[in-house]
């Protein structure tokens, strides 16, 4: 999880950044860090949501639901 967080320093616009953000959010959710998971999902949608692959958008929505993120 630390590797994903480190790789996202500065929120890069590279092709792997959206996937790394979702993996970070998923790891945070899996370790009951819902506030941080919600923040990562929010950043995903703000920075990468438009134009992101549908599979990543669906995963982000699932994490948001599991972590009970505010709308």
User: Given the helix and strand composition, which structural class is it?
Assistant: mainly alpha
Q: What is the number of E strands?
A: 0
> Given the C-alpha coordinates, what overall shape results?
globular
Quick one: biggest sheet?
A: none
Series of secondary-structure elements, N-terminal to C-terminal: HHHH
Average residue-wise pLDDT: 87
Assign a percent range to the helix content. 55-70%
Q: Can you walk through the features of this model?
A:
The protein has 71 residues and is mostly helical. The protein is globular. It starts with a helix and ends in a 5-residue tail after the last helix.
Key features of this structure:
71 residues; mainly alpha; 66% helix; globular
In short:
With 71 residues, this protein is mainly α.
How are the SSEs placed, and which strands pair?
Blueprint (H helix, E strand, L loop, with lengths): L1 H6 L9 H14 L3 H14 L6 H13 L5
Helix pairs in contact: 2-3, 2-4, 3-4
């Amino acid at each position: 999880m630390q590797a994903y967080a480190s790789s996202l320093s500065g929120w890069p616009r590279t092709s792997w950044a959206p996937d790394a953000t979702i993996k970070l959010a998923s790891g945070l959710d899996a370790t009951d860090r819902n506030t941080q998971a919600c923040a990562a999902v929010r950043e995903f949608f703000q920075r990468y949501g438009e134009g992101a692959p549908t599979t990543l958008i669906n995963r982000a929505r699932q994490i948001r639901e599991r972590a009970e993120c505010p709308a």
